[in-house]
């Protein structure tokens, strides 16, 4: 199924994307700063600007491009699709980061129209696959940072790789409203082909790479 539906963004959608990006950047910056009083001390001392920028470029981009990938494929299949931020969950992300852990669910792409199981599956698959592609793109950034001796570039690369591999693996879990549940309902072969490498890469990063954080 394919139509001439074009990719466009409403003003409210652009606002939601911007708010979600900034909120995620702040939440992950606080989390990586240690949360609680350590993060507050960094804010007071002006030491959160660098971590905030790193989080915008890694976690923020990883989450938002994941959602936008769902939209792009949904529109390709003739759907009316729009990202809507969940302001309550964004607030929870910031508050949880202050407590020393993080729970991030910035919102979702909602779409309407008639779809086959395959189209539903491909829309769901687009998010995790985008995260895997982003992880691959961040890998040379990591190498440039390490070989060039740039701590900032290396940190962007390492967190970009780790966060995106983790997002791919987590979202491919075949439970509830996660993408993996939709993909496995469409094709178990495709599910295994994406889920297994994502999990193995995640485990490899944490076991052999120390998480790369």
Q: Could you describe the 3D structure shown?
A:
This protein has 213 residues and is mainly alpha-helical. It has one domain (11-207). The chain contains 8 helices and 2 strands; from the N terminus they run αααβαβαααα. A two-stranded antiparallel ribbon has the order 1-2. Helix 3 crosses helix 6 (151-171).
Distance between the termini: 42 Å
Question: Largest sheet, order of strands side by side?
Answer: 1-2
Alpha-carbon Rg, integer:
18 Å
Low-confidence stretches: none
The number of domains: 1
Shape: globular
Question: β content, as a range?
Answer: 5-15%
Q: List SSEs in N-to-C order.
A: HHHEHEHHHH
Structural class: mainly alpha
Total of helices: 8
The biggest sheet amounts to: 2 strands, antiparallel
What is the helical fraction, as a range of percent?
Answer: over 70%
- Work out the number of β strands: 2
What average pLDDT do the residues reach? 89
Keywords: Membrane, Transmembrane, Transmembrane helix
Protein name: Zn-dependent protease (Includes SpoIVFB)
Organism: Halogeometricum rufum
Transmembrane segments: 20-41, 48-69, 89-110, 122-148, 160-178, 190-212
